[in-house]
Amino acid sequence: MFQADRRDLSCQPSKLASPQEQDQPRLVQVPDADRQDMQFPDIWLRDNCRCKECYLPQTLSRLPQLWNHLDTSVRVLRQSVDLDQEVLCVEWSDGHASQYPLSWLRERDFSSANRQRYLRDFYRPEQKLWSGLDFEHMRQMFYYQELITCDSALQQWLHHLAVFGVALVKEAPLDMDVLRSLSNRVGFMRRTTYGEEFSVRAQPGASNYAYLAAPLPLHTDMPYFEYLPGVTMLHTLEQSASPGGVNLLADAFYVVEVMRERYSEQFRVLCQTPVDWADIGSDGDLHFHNIWRAPVINLDAEGRCVRINHSIPQRDSHFSVPVEQVRPWYEAMATFVGLAHEHSCRFKTTPGDVLTFDNLRLVHGRTGYDDTDRNVRHILGAFVDWDIVYSRLRVLRSASATSSSPDAP
């Protein structure tokens, strides 16, 4: 089946493996003249066959036929590399034949360095945590008109937001459609029970604590949603001339790492104790009763922090845990709140500023302010989900890489 000019890397059909042999990963070694030889698990190669029976190019996805009767014992009978075409060719024990471009394999090499590169450079940028003392050094300003008209500026804004969790957009017009325009540049807004956009200003009889002129403690927005809005955008239309209305921000992921290192037992409590978060009220004609149960600190399978839930007004009086877990949780939470304040920063936005930050990572608040007819503070808010941000960032990055390639037209 294979041409003679291919490098033959064939292996003889293997006998039935013993249980001990089955526990060992069966790896296909692929030589590469430009780098260290690559290796791939054989079953992964079979699952990712690129032929028309297994893969649909227009959807960039595998077809399901193999998985209707997946043979996990499938083995490589023979393999070779076509040096001219730079293709790996494989014959399988199930009678199938596959070809894999070496360029495609290089991008998916299982080496530790390549996996880390993909996760850091393409999946999601590596986050850099910060304390309030670091804020002035890492803060970066972007300009509204550049974000609307320039893709490279848009890419830089989204990348900085992903890495540091906060970015300030300056010189936006004092119009009601600014957040929609920014959201449309990224993808689309996230709608919540408060609509697609919401106005934050003092309101008599407000059903949400944010709509009061009183101090707003550090919190994440809407922890009562399982599907939490990812990026908060706050456009300052009017700012209080009183000394109050000062923004408070803290990188809660930084606080988590401080707790992990210094207060390991309290860190464990905040990771494992589920809390009832709730929002009951109405907005216009819509009445709602939202509840979500989750710990304050949420970790992924590798132990990294991926979400913070925290809002004193929106923590329900229901606490559905055994009584012996209650006091340890309060003690741990007091440590968390104290550290968040200790490592927070303060600044005050001016009309035309759009403060954008990671709502899964940062806790934010503001000081109280005087609210009169002549001293009004008006902030317009909206959300964009991180899935949409990361998607746009990858598209921009790919387009930038293509345009900078020497082979690009």
Protein architecture, described:
- It holds the Pfam family TauD.
- Pathway: Amine and polyamine biosynthesis; carnitine biosynthesis.
- Keywords: Carnitine biosynthesis, Dioxygenase, Iron, Metal-binding, Oxidoreductase.
- Belongs to the gamma-BBH/TMLD family.
- This protein has 409 residues and is an alpha+beta fold.
- The protein has two domains: 117 residues, NE0471 N-terminal domain-like (2-Layer Sandwich); 271 residues, Double-stranded beta-helix, CATH 3.60.130.10.
- The chain is 30% helix and 26% strand.
- The protein contains 13 helices and 22 strands.
- A six-stranded mixed beta sheet has the order 9-10-20-13-22-11. A four-stranded antiparallel beta sheet has the order 1-6-7-8.
- Strand 7 and strand 8 form a beta hairpin.
- Helix 8 packs across helix 13, helix 10 crosses helix 11 and helix 11 crosses helix 12.
- It starts with 5 loop residues before the first strand and ends in a 5-residue tail after the last helix.
- 30% of the residues are buried.
Map the helices and strands.
Blueprint: E1 6-8, H1 19-22, E2 27-30, E3 38-41, H2 42-47, E4 55-56, E5 61-62, H3 65-68, E6 76-82, E7 87-92, E8 97-101, H4 102-107, H5 112-123, H6 135-138, E9 141-143, H7 144-149, H8 151-164, E10 166-170, H9 178-186, E11 197-200, E12 216-219, E13 231-238, E14 247-251, H10 252-262, H11 264-272, E15 275-283, E16 286-294, E17 297-299, E18 305-308, H12 326-342, E19 345-347, E20 354-358, E21 362-366, E22 378-384, H13 386-404
Parallel strand pairs: 9-10
Antiparallel strand pairs: 1-6, 2-3, 4-5, 6-7, 7-8, 10-20, 11-22, 12-21, 13-20, 13-22, 14-19, 14-21, 15-16, 17-18
Helix pairs in contact: 8-13, 10-11, 10-12, 11-12
